[in-house]
Amino acid sequence: MIKVIVVGNGMVGYKFCEKFVSKQGHENYQITVFGEEPRRAYDRVHLSEYFAGKSAEDLSLSTSSWYEENNIILNTSELITDINREQKTIHTHLENTHEYDYLVLATGSAAFVPPIEGVDKEGVFVYRTIEDLDAIMAYAKKIKQNGATEAAVLGGGLLGLEAAKAVRDLGLNAHVVEFAPRLMPRQLDKGASDMLQSKIEELGIGIHLNKSTQYIAGEDAITGMMFEGDDLLKVDMLVISAGIKPRDELGRVCGLEVGVRGGVVVDNKMQTSDPNIFAIGEVALYNHMIYGLVAPGYEMADVAAEQIMNGDKTMREVIDMSTQLKLIGVEVASFGDPFIENDEVTAIVYENKFSGIYKRVNVTKDGKKLLGGILVGDASDYNGLFQIYSNGMALPPNPEDLILGARGGEASSFGSASDLPDTAVICSCENVTKGAICCSITDGTCETFGDVVKTTKATSGCGGCKPMVADLVKAAQKSIGKEIKESICEHFNHTRQELFDLVKINKYTNFYEVIDHHGNGDGCEVCKPLVASIFSSIYNDTANKHVTTQDTNDRYLANIQRNGTYSVVPRIAGGEITPEKLIVIGEVAKQFDLYTKITGAQRVDLFGASLNDLPEIWRILIENGFESGHAYGKSLRAVKSCVGNAWCRYGMDDSTTFAIELENRYRGIRSPHKLKGGVSACIRECAEARGKDFGVIAVEGGWNLYICGNGGANPKHAVLLAEQIDKETVFKYMDRFLMYYIRTAGPLIRTSTWLEKLEGGLDYLKEVIIHDRIGICETLEAEMEQLVGTFECEWKQVLEKPRLMKRFSHFVNSDEKDDNIEYIPLRDQKMPKAW
Amino acid sequence: MENILDKYKSVSINEVTTWFKAGNIKDFPSNRGGCIKYKDKQIAVFNFERRNEWYACQNACPHKMEMVLSRGMTGSADGVPKIACPMHKKTFSLVDGSNLNGDDFSIATYPVKVVDNEVFVGFLE
Question: Between A491, A548, A820, which is nearest B30 by CB?
């Protein structure tokens, strides 16, 4: 057995073990790990989550049995005090001596504490280990009880800002004190720092830049920080996070070569000046630099493991310091050389103080190469930009599109992850390439996203690459003809779209035909209404057909409410109603003792109608010119409008007429989910059209058509489909859009979710319904024309056919109404009594 | 007012003392429910034609006490015939009344027999 001793059980030391035991031939080696901390290696990158409620065990990188399972001896709470290089032994503080063939120093770093007078006072902490955090928490609790409110963090770098968040999470007012004139001076330029500062200050965290601390004030415990110029900041606690210093003591005592400012010198094999001793992570001085990021540390671990096992892997020459993270809720990313700007390189900067976004890319003057950049406030472009930078990919003709890509509703200016070369590193923490991710699927090793994470470890570091990995997994699954199916329920192993096509092709007209041919069992509350809705969408059958399989509201053509009574909503297209008709509604409400309320869709809802009364209520409404408002259906509800240029002095066009036309065109059409529309006569947008599934807004020279918005639990603004088009074109695009949605969306999927899931997104949708890329526009229009041309009011149908009225009776064997309903007064009306 | 549920206790076919004539089979639409009134009870009766079976249960959904189960949707889960309440889609086995969503309330079920096209529901009183 060859003996390998690892000194240090931090993230990089652990990674070394993990890499080592994953390599062939590791059985010939015995790994022994020494850690001075009392616990297994844990995730220091996410340390601040400990304050947010994660436990030490949550942060742990491995399970308690991992070391044993992999035949690794772990000694915690044991500190190495000496190395005897001649005898190749180490000595511990427990007076134990162990022999090694290879020694790996992964001792990491300690917090750098600047030599400021008074840093030894009570209430001054460093931010490094779980024990530090425990001490900080205990102290914060104590001083809060004494009425203290203020705490400072010394250091405005990455870790300092993390610490500030942690302090804030403890319920104290946090102040960040930085010596440099900007935050995160290693990663951000002035503009980016300013943006980050204003966002952090908005959260109530004080930022103090350009501050040189003279001494820590206070008797025994800290009471303040004195800056140069007699400037006192009163604080009751201080957390120092002003950088790191390598833990190179062991290297020094045994005479290894160390750097002037610390760190054990290593070559590109991670070998120190003694060939049997390796150093990795934050203790290693490589290329005259200490790398305080986890990604290079992990790579060093891999190189050292390879070297010990006689591999030939070496550390790359230039180490990438790109980072992407969320700091106190603000997205920040920096990649390549964030600052470079010279005769050959130009910086393109986009700054939006309104939305708090700062973006910078550094591009060669010939516009061909991306050398680095900074993102603050919105780092969603990071993955794409990083790939372009690290693979030297070609830039778009206008390099500013890299950061301004979102103009005119276009999606990102760089293609999808599938355009990247196989060698592109997707997960830089774990150094996983696109090729490795795709291969794991195509060669059958993995089936799902979860498998890929387990096998390749991609996304398990910072997690920033998750969306890209998910996309790649999907693309790879597709390339081998595998797709994850969203089947409807236990009775059908089909998607809604498949079922739609099956019904259409086979001309089925009955639920049981469909389930007997393509499903199993007796159906349920999920598939039955879904098939009924498909029948309606294809044949424009009203809900009076297939009564048995309609969802309850469609079955009774009304909305069931809390006590089992129903509410009634007649159509008031565009919200326009005559006084005469308003009076009719009022009289019906009075006659049947209904609670009335104006809805959000510019209509009137009448509540508390018993099942037996529904036909009579509708007889009166229909005689007076009303029709069903389909408020109970998964269908068009209403098209809301502002008053428009008929009355409004700002109106640019006639929004009310347009809304009525739209509502009357699409009324009654059944769809995967409810549909709402809006029309505004100017950009003041009083109709809130962009909060609807479709919205039309009058602009100079025509109408803008927006699609796929909604309110509800997860509000979404509708996105621009086409600009400055005439009414006729609006109808044309609307016909195509709605029909395409009806055909392809999953059950109970609103348009916004549908668009999100649509492969290719808005760009693809535009191709389909504006440019007719897949050649279906004519069909879509014809199908819509068929639906529009065959509209019938389903309540009118009921009243004309006594056979259809039979269902509006509570009892089969009695004409009585439900006797279980009681009301209590509500203001001047009534509401159901609660049970 | 939990007590409306107290009225409803499952009845098994061999303990029936009264077979109440609920109506003609024509009164009960196929594959869905109809509600009958028996004394002070509301009972939902299902003509599950697809399975050639009849079921009856309390009309009150024990979740929020509305008299609505007869207006629910019939179906099956792993072959067990069930009814889904129209209010919140709670589903119950029509065989033994047990809740199929993992909630801890269940419904009372009653035996049904059809003789010469007439539908009878069995009660203890």
Answer: A548
Which residue is listed with tokens 């009448």?
Answer: A606
CATH number corresponding to A635-800:
3.30.413.10
For the stretch A332-368, pLDDT in tens is 999 989 988 888 898 999 888 888 899 999 999 888 8
Instruction: Please report, in range form, the residues annotated as the binding site of A for siroheme.
Output: 686
What is A124-242's CATH number, 3.50.50.60, 3.20.20.140, 3.40.50.1110, 3.80.10.10? 3.50.50.60
Quick one: tokens of A505?
Answer: 């092709």
pLDDT confidence bin for A416, thresholds 50/70/90: low
Instruction: Closest CB to A835: pick one of B64, B84, B89.
Output: B64
- Cβ A373 vs Cβ A362: under 8 Å: yes
Please give the DSSP secondary-structure letter assigned to residue B54.
E
User: Which two tokens mark A670?
Assistant: 């059944």
Q: Does A508 touch chain B (CB under 8 A)?
A: no
Q: Do B35 and A812 touch (CB under 8 A)?
A: yes
Chain mean pLDDT for chain B: 91
Q: Under an 8 A CB cutoff, do B75 and A524 touch?
A: yes
Answer yes or no: are the C-beta atoms of A562 and B114 closer than 8 Å.
no
Across the interface, do B29 and A556 touch by the CB < 8 Å criterion?
no
Name beta bridge partners: A679: A641, A696
Pairing of strands A238-240, A124-126: parallel
Q: Average pLDDT for residues A252-276, to the nearest whole number?
A: 94
Domains of chain B, earliest start first: 3-14+28-115 (2.102.10.10)
Would you say B119 and B110 are in contact if contact means Cβ atoms under 8 Å apart? no
Q: Hey, CA dihedral for A573, A575, A580, A583, is it positive or negative?
A: positive
CB–CB contact B68 A560 (8 Å): yes
pLDDT at A443 over 60: yes
What is the CA B108 to chain-centroid distance, rounded? 7
Task: Render A545-610 in DSSP notation, one character per residue.
Answer: TTGGGS-HHHHHTSEE-TTS-EEE-B--GGG---HHHHHHHHHHHHHTT-EEEE-TTS-EEEEEE-
How far is residue A815's CA from residue B68's CA, in Å, rounded to a whole number? 16
| Gap between the Cα atoms of A267 and A244, Å rounded | 21
pTM: 0.53
**pLDDT-derived band of residue A676, with 50, 70 and 90 as boundaries?**
very high
* Domain A2-109+246-308 listed as CATH 3.40.50.1220: no
Distance CA A678, CA A691 (A): 8
Shortest Cα–Cα distance, A533 to chain B (Å):
15
User: What are the strands of the beta sheet with A224-227, ordered from one edge?
Assistant: A213-217, A224-227, A231-234
- Strand segments, DSSP code E, in A253-364 are 264-265, 277-279, 284-285, 323-327, 330-336, 345-352, 357-364
3-class SS at A741? Answer: helix
B18: left (phi over 0), alpha (psi -120 to 50) or beta: beta
Do the Cβ atoms of A102 and A4 come closer than 8 Å?
Answer: yes
Name every residue whose Cβ is closer than 8 Å to that of residue A527 and which is 6 or more positions away in sequence: A488, A489, A491, A492, A515, A519
